[in-house]
Write a structure and sequence with these properties.
This protein is an alpha+beta fold. It has helices at residues 2-26, 34-42, 79-89, 106-112, 126-129, 182-190, 225-232, 282-295, 373-384; strands spanning 61-67, 70-74, 92-100, 115-125, 134-135, 145-152, 161-166, 171-178, 198-201, 204-207, 211-222, 240-243, 249-252, 257-261, 266-270, 302-308, 315-323, 326-327, 338-344, 347-354, 356-370, 389-400, 404-415, 420-423. Residues 3-420 form the Regulatory protein YycH domain.
């Protein structure tokens, strides 16, 4: 009888211990089970769709040189741009030779020779270009970053020339074998004959007449702070909330932090974890950045890859959003239109993006003309007195309204001092 009582008492003690353990693990204030936290982190909300790096790499402009000082410009997603770029991507380039830029008369080639010039903004690593173009591996320039590809016909020459320009500024690589004939190049150039004519002013191209663009009001929705916490923190339940004096909100798990500016619907995520030592690889960081966005927010819209900085200590990556054929500007007054990231050895240390995204199909449009010709030239000359003008392109200036986003067509002017000015409002 005594042994039986001991057994019952022991059983009660064991059961009591299990109950106590249950409450300690599963019912502490402000926490959930480790299993539940793990599931919450892995099974994040299906926010935006995923994308592939190949869809994010394409030229910001396509310049057609028709000879006789005549030029035109095609922008992404336009009909002739897509037609020509698709054909070029399917043709092979190999047998590269390094040449000095000083030995070429670029103004003469640009003005007199029929050709196609693709510009890639701040440049794309060769290994990334090889994902979208048929560029044969070549140790001569595999470590380069290319910001321009120029394919042209030379007088009395039976083959087309293809030049790949390095961002280093003084080096160009010519493909010894180009899977494009002289007739191919001329056919592509002929697509621009009846398009808006452009003239060269210094290093920028000015349309000789006004340019038509669409002004749009687009319906919007936004991610919640809870969705971003769920996506970015291993266990969102242990994050602390801090209210800043400027009105911004900070959520932190003592290691990572998420700052949200509610008035602009803009978020900034930081993870200061020390990266592994080793050489910086822009290509690997680009792939890591695309994977990160796929897993933490997704791609609600069309984006293009941009690199900034020298890439020697860390990779600074920008994904520029497009509406139709033109980029949406990120301004000081309203942050929108870009995802900005910093990576070190494939580890994301900062991630900035808007919480707002456009809703497909919910929009109204009307046509607007941007100035061209002498009127635009006068505006450019006036801005040039402040700082040399490096680039000119059509863009959209976003304006947040109560339930929509207004996209206003403008000319964006990039100055040598790094500032972006808008004209044509």
């Amino acid at each position: 009888m005594k042994e039986r009582m001991k057994s019952i008492l022991l059983l009660l003690l064991v059961l009591g211990s299990l109950v106590q353990s249950y409450y300690l693990i599963y019912r502490l204030p402000g926490s959930d089970s480790a299993a539940k936290a793990m599931n919450n982190y892995i099974k994040t909300d299906n926010m935006g769709p995923q994308d592939r790096v190949e869809n994010l790499i394409y030229p910001d402009k396509m310049l057609l040189h028709m000879g006789g000082g005549k030029h035109t410009v095609f922008y992404p997603n336009s009909t002739f741009y897509k037609l020509i770029y698709t054909r070029i991507k399917g043709r092979g380039f190999e047998g590269f030779q390094r040449r000095s830029m000083e030995n070429m008369d670029w103004n003469k080639i640009r003005s007199e020779n029929p050709g196609i010039e693709l510009t890639f903004g701040s440049g794309v690593p060769v290994s990334m270009l090889q994902r979208v173009m048929q560029i044969q591996p070549d140790s001569l320039f595999e470590a380069e970053r290319i910001n321009r590809i120029w394919i042209y016909n030379a007088p009395n020459d039976s083959k087309a020339h293809a030049l790949f320009f390095s961002t280093e500024g003084d080096v160009v690589y010519e493909a010894g074998k180009v899977d494009l004939t002289v007739q191919d190049v001329q056919q592509h150039v002929d697509f621009g004959k009846n398009w808006t004519p452009y003239t060269l002013l210094g290093s920028i191209y000015l349309p000789e007449k006004p340019v038509d663009m669409v002004e749009a009001n687009v319906g919007i929705d936004s991610y919640t702070v809870g969705q971003m916490q769920q996506s970015l923190f291993f266990d969102p339940s242990i994050t602390r909330y801090i209210q800043e004096k400027d009105g911004s909100e900070i959520y932190t798990d003592s290691k990572r932090s998420l700052q949200v500016r509610q008035e602009q619907k803009w978020m900034s995520y930081t993870d200061p974890a020390a990266p592994p030592s080793g050489e910086v690889s822009s290509s690997k960081d680009i792939l890591a950045a695309v994977d990160f966005v796929n897993e933490h927010g997704g791609w609600n819209g069309v984006y293009r890859l941009e690199l900034s900085g020298n890439g020697k200590e860390q990779s600074q990556i920008v994904f520029q959003q497009y509406f139709g054929s033109y980029p949406v500007l990120d301004t000081m007054n309203f942050h929108y239109g870009t995802m900005k990231m910093e990576l070190q050895q494939g580890n994301v240390s900062t991630y900035e993006r808007s919480l707002i995204y456009m809703q497909a199909g919910q929009q109204t449009k009307r046509m607007k003309k941007l100035p061209g010709g002498a009127e635009l030239k006068a505006m450019i000359m006036a801005l040039g007195k402040e700082s040399p003008v490096e680039d000119l392109y059509p863009a959209y200036l976003p304006e947040l309204e109560s339930k929509s986003l207004k996209l206003i067509p403008v000319w964006a002017v990039r100055l040598a001092n790094g500032q972006i000015r808008t004209i044509g409002l």
